[in-house]
Design a protein that fits this description.
The complex is a heterodimer of chains A (207) and B (417). With 207 residues, chain A is mainly alpha-helical. Chain A contains 9 helices and no strands. Chain B folds into 2 domains: 208 residues, no CATH class; 117 residues. Helix content of chain B is 63%, strand content 3%. In chain B, the strands form 2 sheets. In chain B, strands 1-2 form a two-stranded antiparallel sheet. Chain B has a two-stranded antiparallel sheet with strand order 3-4. Classes of the chains: A mainly alpha (207), B mainly alpha (417).
């Protein structure tokens, strides 16, 4: 197995772990991480030559950037909001973001759209967590930002190709993101009433 | 040419057959105003959807060509089998979202507004749901299902769903476990508490069984059809937009932008204080008085609108976009004329008379969107004469009705179900 496949496999493993473990507390994290995992699994299959499906990897990567990362962003910026906390709203947000990706990037031909969404999401995560002094979140955002910038700059980082930088940065970012979830949920820092399973009505009552 | 051009005549024939069968079986499943409204809503939806649907098919084709993971041979039977299951699965979720997300309920409620359940209800389709529903079929494009396979699968699913809108067919044994049948679709259209948000399946009911939304029809509790908040109108335009208006009202009414946003995406009946409780089922049906002359005019008017809609479908591809839209609007105006008459609007009869004079006059003079055969020109003159006579009779009938009732003849009565 080559390095690209291996590092995409690492990202797939971390994303699956984030979706099934820490993602239990935040459905938006679960859905976002699952999208990243799907893209990474397809990448592993593609780069290892086991089952090369380049178009599927390309489209899943688009959704991972244009839907997955914004979901992670929303969950960190508004951790007690309904999108972060309730599966139905996480799905609605995901579907709406996917529609925008299809209409703007695929039909409209503005291919930068998913990258812009991903970048905005990561910057928002960084700002929100820094302002709240949640350093796990800030570190996660910083890792993801470096990964995105490194990939966009198409520069090698030592032995790592740009794609590898993206995969390693996102994997590390997701691991730190999971640390942020553990820390904030564990300490109740998500908000006084932000316990997992809060209903739409109870969330709405607070606003 | 639109595939509907070929099946709609069969649908109409089956509706007439159901009317006849219901009479023979002494079952009261049709009300003229309700059936005419269903047909009117169907015609309006086809006018709108024929354009919007084209856009969604174009989007599908672009996505399939740019992102499609595989290239499929349309002669391969497996692609059809895969397409059938993927479409039906997508339909289940589209339909479920149509009931459980307020914005999408706005695009589906019109299909449920009928307080009757018969084959005409199947034609009562929303004008706006194609704007949203294509999203749920996008995964088919991602795996590269060819656009022609998608279109034919979607069409076959729509045709299948027609026959399940009937009360004349009882439970169907083993089929109830696998397929959507009249029995489990009756449950879907019910407003009894056990019926709400159940049986979303299009062709297969297995999705409901898998995702916990299946409910069996109960012998001890007859299904009451319609929606919890009745629309109480025969107007095909209003029935299409009534829920959107209520969403906007709620968004203005609820404080805080989070609540405003949530009122769009929460389930229907959501308020910041929680879900509204399910009210006791109202057994009354919306009804306006209907004398024999109005009934006769409704049948004639509905028939004419249907023929014009079929003509529109037949010639639509030969028309320029402005001509196509104008012809479509002429048909929508005809449905509004009928609804105004059925609702006893004060100017209903004179406006309808003006409309038929213009329409039949233009047809008779061969001043239409496409050439009219001489036989149809003669028929238009005959229709004009009969319509004018019937409208005069309707006017007299309504005046007598209002004098005897002491009102303006436009009263709305609730009749027991």
């Amino acid at each position: 197995m080559n390095q690209q496949a291996l590092l995409d496999g690492v990202l797939a493993g971390v994303a699956l772990w984030a979706a099934w473990g820490p993602g239990r507390a935040l459905p938006a994290l679960r859905l976002g991480a699952a999208l990243l995992a799907a893209a990474a699994v397809l990448g592993t299959l593609k780069f290892s030559g086991l089952l090369p499906l380049p178009e599927l990897h390309q489209s899943m990567s688009m959704f991972a950037a244009g839907v997955g990362l914004p979901l992670l962003g929303v969950a960190m910026v508004w951790p007690d909001g309904v999108v972060a906390r309730e599966r139905r709203y996480a799905w609605i947000f995901g579907v709406a973001a996917a529609v925008m990706c299809v209409l703007v990037a695929v039909v409209g031909g503005i291919k930068l759209w998913p990258s812009v969404c991903a970048l905005l999401a990561v910057v928002a995560m960084g700002l929100a967590s820094s302002l709240r002094r949640q350093w796990w979140g800030a570190a996660a955002a910083a890792c993801m930002l470096l990964a995105l910038v490194g990939f966009a700059a198409k520069r090698n980082l030592g032995p790592l190709a740009p794609g590898d930088v993206l995969h390693v940065g996102l994997a590390l970012g997701l691991w730190l993101y999971a640390g942020w979830v553990r820390q904030t949920v564990g300490t109740g820092a998500l908000g006084s009433q932000g316990a997992p399973g809060a209903t739409a009505a109870s969330v709405a009552d607070r606003s | 040419m639109n595939l509907l051009f070929y099946v709609v005549p069969i649908f109409v024939a089956l509706i007439l057959l159901e009317v006849l069968a219901a009479k023979l079986m002494r079952r009261d499943v049709y009300r003229i105003h309700d059936a005419v409204t269903s047909m009117n809503v169907g015609i309006m939806s086809e006018v709108v959807r024929s354009t919007v649907k084209l856009l969604t098919v174009v989007i599908y084709a672009i996505v399939a060509s740019k992102l499609g993971a595989f290239t499929w041979d349309v002669k391969n039977p497996w692609v059809w089998i895969l397409a059938f299951f993927m479409y039906d699965f997508g339909y289940y979720w589209a339909h479920r979202a149509g009931h459980e997300v307020s914005l999408l309920w706005g695009a589906h409620v019109v299909h449920h507004n009928s307080e009757e359940f018969n084959l005409s209800t199947a034609l009562r389709q929303s004008s706006t749901n194609t704007i949203f529903y294509w999203v749920f079929y996008a995964p088919m494009a991602l795996v590269g299902i060819p656009v022609q396979v998608f279109v034919i699968t979607a069409f076959a699913s729509a045709v299948y769903q027609f026959w399940v809108h009937t009360q004349l067919i009882d439970r169907m044994g083993w089929m109830e476990k696998i397929f959507t049948t009249p029995s489990n679709h009756r449950v879907h259209h019910g407003k009894n508490e056990y019926c709400l948000d159940h049986n979303y399946g299009g062709t297969l009911i297995i999705w409901d069984r898998m995702f916990g939304t299946y409910a069996r029809e109960r012998e001890d509790e007859p299904v009451i059809y319609g929606t919890i908040t009745p629309v109480n109108s025969w107007n095909p335009v209003w029935t299409n937009f009534v829920h959107y208006v209520s969403i906007v009202r709620n968004a203005f009414h609820f404080g805080g932008w989070k609540n405003k946003l949530q009122s769009v995406f929460a389930p229907p009946g959501w308020t910041p204080q929680g879900m509204l409780p399910h009210p006791a089922v109202d057994l009354r049906k919306f009804q306006t008085t209907c004398g024999p002359w109005q009934r006769a005019y409704c049948v004639l008017g509905c028939g004419v609108v249907y023929v014009l809609a079929m003509h529109w479908l037949a010639v639509a591809n030969t028309l320029s976009v402005p001509e196509r839209v104008t012809y479509g609007l002429v048909n929508v105006l005809a449905t509004l004329g009928l609804s105004g008459l059925m609702s006893h609007q004060r100017l209903g009869v004179p406006l309808e008379l003006a409309r038929v004079v213009v329409v039949f006059g233009a047809l008779a003079a061969n001043f239409w969107f496409a050439p009219i055969a001489p036989a149809f020109q003669a028929l238009a003159v005959l229709c004009l004469a009969v319509s004018a006579f019937l409208l005069y009779k309707v006017h007299v009938e309504q005046r007598q009705g209002s004098q005897s009732a002491g009102g303006d003849g436009g009263e709305v009565t609730g009749v027991p179900a």
